[in-house]
Each structure stands twice: as C-alpha cells, then as structure tokens.
Amino acid sequence: MNKKIFLGLLFIIGALADTAFAQTAPAKAYLIDIWYGFYNAIVGDWAKNAPLFIEYVTKMKPVYLLVVIGVPSVFLLHYLIIGPKKFSHEGEQILYYDVFARIIHWLAALFFSLLVFTGLIIIFANVFGGGSFVKFCRYVHLISAFGFGITVVPMFLMWLKDMLPAPYDIKWFLILGGYLSKKKRPIPAGKYNAGQKMWFWLATLGGGFMLFTGFYIYLFNTSLETLRLYTLLHMLLGIAIVALFFTHIYMSMIAIKGALWSMITGYKSADEVSILHSKYYEKLKKKA
Amino acid sequence: MAMKFICDTERCIACYGCVVACKEGHHLPIGVNRRRVVIVNEGKPGEKSISIACMHCSDAPCMAVCPTKCIYKREDGIVLHDKTKCIGCGYCLMACPFGAPQFPKSGPFGARGVMDKCTFCAGGPAPTFSEQEKQLYGQNRIAEGKVPLCAGMCSTKALLAGDSEVISEIYTQRVAKRGAANL
C-alpha cells in the first residue's frame, strides 16, 4: 500500500518538475517565428493599404491631366456652340453682395486660387522640374491653407442660410441650369442656384476636409497607414475641387457676360436676376 | 546584375556598428539614419537582430509614386534619387515597406527637407567625386571599388553587400555549414 502511494507521489512530483522545467527552458525559436517578428517590426501594416496607395496615387496624375485639359475644352465648346448669356445691365439694380461678403469672397478666392494652382504644380512636379520652385510652391500651399482656413469660416456662416438645398434645385439640375440653350426662360433658382450651392458646399466643407487631411500630410504626425488614406482622399477630393474651380471661373467671367461685376460692385441687374434667379426675384417682388 | 544587402541574423549581434559607420562616414544630420538595427525578442530567449536600410528593390514602389520622378535605378540595381529635384512630399515614405526614406526637419515651419536614404555608398546623380556629390549624398565608395561602409566594417560579417548572386551563394554556404540545427 505504502509502495503504491510512494510511486503515485513520485509521478506527481515528476509531472510537476516536468512542467516547471518546460516553463524555464529556453523556448525553441523557429526561423519562421523570427521571420514574423522581423516582418511585424519592419514592414508592419504596410500590406494593409500601401499597395492601394501605390496603385491609385500613380493613377491620379492622368485623371488630373484629364480634368485640367478636359473641363476647359468642354467650356470652350460650350462657348463656341451655345455662347454666353447676355443680360441688360441697365435699369433696376438689386443689391446681391454687401461689402463684407465681397471682401470675404475675394480674400478666400485669393487663397483658394493659390491653393489650386500650387497644388496642381505639386502634382505635376516633374513637368516643372521639381527642386526649389516646387518646394517653394509647397510652402505657398501651406501659407495659403492658413489664409483660406481663416476666411472660410465667415464665408460659410454668411452664405449658409441661402445655400441650403431647396426642392427646385432638382429641376435646375435636370435642365443643367439652362446653360444648354440661349432662350431666356426663368430658371428655377433661389438667391443662389443649385450649381452655386454645390460649389459652396464643396469649397467650405470639402475645403475644410482638405485642410484637415492637409494638416496631417504636411506634419506627418500620424501613422503611415492613416497618412496613405488621407493623401488618397486629399487627391480624390482635389479632382472635384479643381473641376468646379474652373467651372466657377468660366461661369462668373465668361459664360454670363458681366457677371463678374456683381462681385465687384455688389449689384446685379433685375433683368439678370429675374431669369437666372427667378424664385428669388418672385420673393423680392412679393415683399415689395 | 543586382546590388543587394543580406543580413545574416545568426551572426548579427546588434552592435550598431553599421549604423554608426554610415552616419559618420556620410556626415548625416541629427535625426537621419540611413541604416537601423531592429531587434526581436529583446532580453528574452531567442533574441535576434537585423540591420535594415534601403533594400534597393527591383520594382521600387517609391519610384512609382514620386511626383517629381527624381528616384531612379542604376543599371547595377542601385536605387538613387536626385536631391536637387526632390520636394520632400514624403510619398516615397508612404510607399516604402521598409521605412527607408528619411526626412530632416530643417525647412521653414518645421517642414520636411528633401529625402535622404541609403545610396549603397554609390553617391548620387551629381558628378562622381565632386564636392556637390559629397555634400548631398556622402561618399561614393562603389566608384572607388569598395563595398558599402556598413558591410565593410561589420565585425561579424553578418551584413553582406554586393551582387545578389555572389552574396546569396556565400549565405547559402554558411547555412549549409551550420546545418539544420539552427532552423
């Protein structure tokens, strides 16, 4: 009996010793484990989104080229085939932009234009030969971003109410703002038409998102994985902004004769407003 | 022919000699390390270390994403870049799997300066042995017929640099001599 207990104890001690030994003995390091260790320490989460980044960043340049050449060509065709809209600038004048709105608009416009052009120079850096000129544009891009960041806030607040979507905006989109015909029919639009609203939201909220992502791209103070994503989004949104930037310039300076003067003097003619902003004109008439 | 690095992790003792040799030999500014040592299982059984720099990829992703197209590949497989063209945008760092591109924070507003990375001690596009090449890229030991500094001074000869066929042959022989015990 004693012998059996003694043997049993021996087994238990043996088993304990065995587990104790297994815990202190050097763990067998397999080559594949070491390889995984190195992979995690060096490459890390590169495979998560870097292949996507590499694939799409290289594809962005031709898309930008298409926008830079394509959008102005479409407008040139529009100008040659359909032609600009002409309105009488005589007669009753309606105050559209007060002094504050004009100052804010032109300040934001200055910084925004600088951002668009320096941004395009950075994207097509090899065309400009890189080096100190493009590096200088990178610094201008940063300073303009600060300027735009300051002016975009009052711009957002002062136009927010008039830029809220309205049901007749859908109709405006369906007839593409009436820009495909020369007939002077009242076009469904409030103080700002659906195209202007689209541009407003893209420039303010989209611009805000560009400031946010650009901040990280400039300072590199987040993980590389996030940076890759931000860079892609920055470039993707940039395409839409460049396209609408050219549209804004064409519409205000060429497509509607004399429209530019409304942002300088602040007044639009009643003739123009009654056609291009018919809903707003009706409202004004009712009030009067 | 393709110039490559191999680091024999059975031999590397994490002495950081390669890092110091590279930094001193090329007079690199503070914060820029073209080469670094990565240690796994530090202080534990099975500790291993490896020395990492630009791997001079055969299909380098940094070359694909660079907006200035200033990164190029020499005929012998060494990936170099033109510092006079680089704008310091940092896309190469986002594309690199090894974290090789380095950026000194020397520009205005804490901006990144132009990229700096391992040149395989082959200088840069500036005229060979010119003062400009030395200033921008460091020594050109390949043109002098020498191996890169890091591999040349490696005390255990863990770090091998040269034609990929030659150094992989050396490494294969070492593995064969060591036998399967270490696998």
Relevant terms:
heterodimer, A: 288 residues, mainly alpha, Fumarate Reductase Cytochrome B subunit, 2 domains, 73% helix, B: 183 residues, alpha+beta, Alpha-Beta Plaits, two-stranded antiparallel ribbon, 6 helices, globular
Overall outline of chain A: elongated
At CATH level 3, the topology of the largest domain in chain A is Fumarate Reductase Cytochrome B subunit
Largest sheet of chain A, in brief, is: 2 strands, antiparallel
Largest interface: A-B, 42 and 41 residues
Strands in their spatial order, largest beta sheet of chain B: 1-6
Alpha-carbon Rg of chain B, integer: 17 Å
Reported CATH architecture of chain B: 2-Layer Sandwich
- Overall average residue pLDDT of chain B: 92
The shape of chain B is globular
Structural class, judged by helices and strands of chain A? mainly alpha
Keywords (chain A): Cell membrane, Electron transport, Heme, Iron, Membrane, Metal-binding, Signal, Transmembrane, Transmembrane helix, Transport
GO molecular function, one term (chain A): formate dehydrogenase (NAD+) activity
Family (chain A): Belongs to the formate dehydrogenase gamma subunit family.
Domain Cytochrome b561 bacterial/Ni-hydrogenase (chain A): 97-266
Describe the structure.
The complex is a heterodimer of chains A (288) and B (183). Chain A has 288 residues and is mainly alpha-helical. Chain A has 2 domains: 1-44; 46-287, Fumarate Reductase Cytochrome B subunit. In chain A, 73% of the residues lie in helices and 2% in strands. Chain A is built from 11 helices and 2 strands, in the order αααβααααααβαα. Chain A has helices spanning 2-24, 31-42, 46-81, 99-123, 131-159, 168-174, 194-219, 224-255, 262-265, 270-276, 278-287; strands at 93-95, 267-269. In chain A, strands 1-2 form a two-stranded antiparallel sheet. In chain A, α4 (99-123) runs antiparallel to α5, α5 crosses α7 and α7 (194-219) packs antiparallel against α8. Chain A is elongated, with a radius of gyration of 31 Å. The mean pLDDT of chain A is 87. Chain B has 183 residues and is of the alpha+beta class. Chain B has a single domain (3-182), classed as Alpha-Beta Plaits, CATH 3.30.70. In chain B, 25% of the residues lie in helices and 14% in strands. Chain B has helices spanning 17-25, 61-65, 91-95, 131-137, 149-153, 164-178; strands at residues 3-7, 36-40, 48-52, 71-73, 79-81, 159-163. Chain B has a two-stranded antiparallel sheet. In chain B, a hairpin with a 5-residue loop joins β4 (71-73) and β5 (79-81). The longest helix of chain B is centred in the C-terminal third of the chain and has 15 residues, at 164-178. The mean pLDDT of chain B is 92. At the A-B interface, α2, α3, α5, α7 and α8 of A face β3, α2 and α3 of B. Chain B: One of its GO terms (molecular function) is metal ion binding. Chain B: This is Formate dehydrogenase. Chain B: Keywords: 4Fe-4S, Iron, Iron-sulfur, Metal-binding. Chain B: Residues 3-33, 43-76, 77-106 form the 4Fe-4S ferredoxin-type domain. Chain B: Pfam families: Fer4_11 (PF13247). Chain A: It is a multi-pass membrane protein.
